[in-house]
TrEMBL record, chains A, B:
Keyword Secreted set for record: no
GO CC terms, sorted: cytoplasm
GO MF entry, a single one: homoserine kinase activity
Pathways per UniProt: Amino-acid biosynthesis; L-threonine biosynthesis; L-threonine from L-aspartate: step 4/5
Keyword list, A-Z: Amino-acid biosynthesis, ATP-binding, Cytoplasm, Kinase, Nucleotide-binding, Threonine biosynthesis, Transferase
Organism annotation: Olleya aquimaris
Protein name: Homoserine kinase
Record carries keyword Kinase: yes
Length: 309, 309
């Protein structure tokens, strides 16, 4: 095998109560990437379609993560990476993570899978660090593991793969405004009330239990964020009404995807998820903000191979 | 059926990371209670053995909780309650909760089980409020439901029954010093660092996942409390060395039981749990503090009927 084409999906980090630890993987939106072996050693970005991203190997997240794996594996070949970007940078659904994860996943396949998923996550975090300024895994892990993940700790890296209820669908709306991750971090308080923290860890515990027991009602009850959302939602115009409308038409819950501006909702069926998309669109249609919406089953597989030669 | 004898077990609340929400049920330590129907209406405490507790129906936690149920059910008989107290009040292993839960459980049996476990928990919380000043369920729920419980919320009351790994044993050491619940509450900060809160909810999520997957290693990794233990452990002499020794001889983890002074440890086998007990005893034996130790399988049944007539 000398060349591989993969689909590297978008992901939703935080998932309301699970700030900095939970995430899930989408299916209908993601980047395509083609990675091929070269006789010339090293890592090279050979093509970028759909976004204005750097070609320098030490500046592109896909090559930085690939280099972390490459320097560890020390293979007797090199690799070049074509990136077909469908996930808009800055959308809050793991654009940089998809690039960082996709390249290490693909190279691992081309090398005969010397690394496990946790190791791939670790390499991809090196790429993510270029984009966000710190090594975190809450978008990386769901892409590489699929489904719902809980990043138990980053040092040492411990990723838990949580079960995914069968009929769970996500709706995403991406209002095209810019929120920098650094700004979204800066707006958060350094200290929070103990009572709110207790509410939050109760919700995280019950969300994990709900996923294990296929309990949609409990999942719905657990999708609350009393810690981060009250701050970050201020950065997203019409957030409160979008969330309220989503729940009104049947969503189990809704919240900020990653650090925004995308808003996610979870629903028990595709029909409901589509109704939620329509309700969300109706709100932004009345504004001058451009937007994209996506409806997706939760992707339990994660990154997948499209074609190899 | 006119009379019932029950065993109302001791319980461990908080369970390291799960402050205010998690708890589990013990098996080898608990109160015996005999409850019988009377022609005279109302609730009466008829006997108290083993502790100096009030007989007045509006002051004893067992009768206060019983009255909450009684006033709702409005049966055409009364009940009298004999309490054989084995759990020392103030020990931190749910002494008042055992009394509050036991009476409502028993009366529900005598009435033909008109109430479910959540309703019984709700009634018992009225009794617990007399002892602790607020209605909480983190010791009540494990007694009534058995095994591990997560109190998702108290208004409305939502209790989740979590799975219990087969070979899980608890060791308890009760150093006989007095810590008032109110003092143990007062020592806690009103605000905590967001980073610590994130660590805590990551641990709660992974602890719930560990219980669902029978993963003892993950359970061990999750039994950390970075929020409450650093404060409350100061109130318990030799806590740090007791915890360290417990883990050294094989415990999965150890922490403060409820608001203390009891210390609990969890182990994968009875043999390890007994070695942990010995290690804990060795430390307090060298001091002038009296203590009791208990080794118990996790009780997945909760309160149980010993005899009915």
């Amino acid at each position: 095998m000398n060349q591989i084409k993969i689909f590297s999906p978008a992901t939703v980090a935080n998932v309301s109560c699970g700030f900095d630890v939970l995430g899930f993987c989408l299916d209908t939106i993601g980047d395509d990437m083609v990675i091929r072996k070269t006789t010339e050693k090293g890592i090279r970005i050979s093509k970028i379609v759909g976004a204005d991203l750097p070609f320098e190997a030490d500046k592109n997240v896909a090559s930085v993560s690939a280099l972390a794996l490459y320097n560890d594996a020390q293979p007797d070949c090199g690799f070049e990476i074509d990136i077909y970007k469908n996930i808009k940078p800055g959308s809050g659904i793991g654009s940089s993570s998809a690039s960082a994860s996709g390249s290490v996943f693909a190279i691992n396949e081309l090398l005969g899978r010397p690394y496990n998923k946790t190791q791939l996550t670790q390499f991809a975090m090196k790429g993510e660090a270029i984009a966000s300024g710190c090594e975190h895994a809450d978008n990386i892990a769901p892409g590489i593991f699929g489904g719902f993940t809980l990043v138990k700790s980053t040092t040492p890296l411990q990723v838990l793969q949580l079960p995914t209820p069968d009929n769970l669908y996500a709706t995403i709306i991406h209002p095209q405004i810019e929120i920098k991750t650094s700004e979204a971090r800066a707006i958060l308080p350094k200290n929070i009330p103990l009572q709110n923290a207790i509410t939050q860890w109760s919700n995280v515990g019950s969300l994990v239990h709900a996923l294990h027991t296929n309990d949609y009602k409990l999942l719905s009850d657990s999708l609350n964020d009393v810690v981060v959302e009250p701050y970050r939602s201020q950065l997203i115009p019409h957030f409160d009404v979008v969330k309220a409308e989503a729940i009104k038409v049947g969503a189990l819950g809704a919240g900020i995807s990653g650090s925004g501006p995308s808003i996610f909702a979870l629903s028990k069926s595709k029909i409901t998820a589509e109704a939620v998309a329509e309700a969300m669109q109706n709100i932004y249609s009345k504004t001058d903000i451009s937007f994209n919406t996506y409806v997706s089953k939760i992707n339990t597989e994660g990154i997948r191979v499209m074609k190899n030669e």
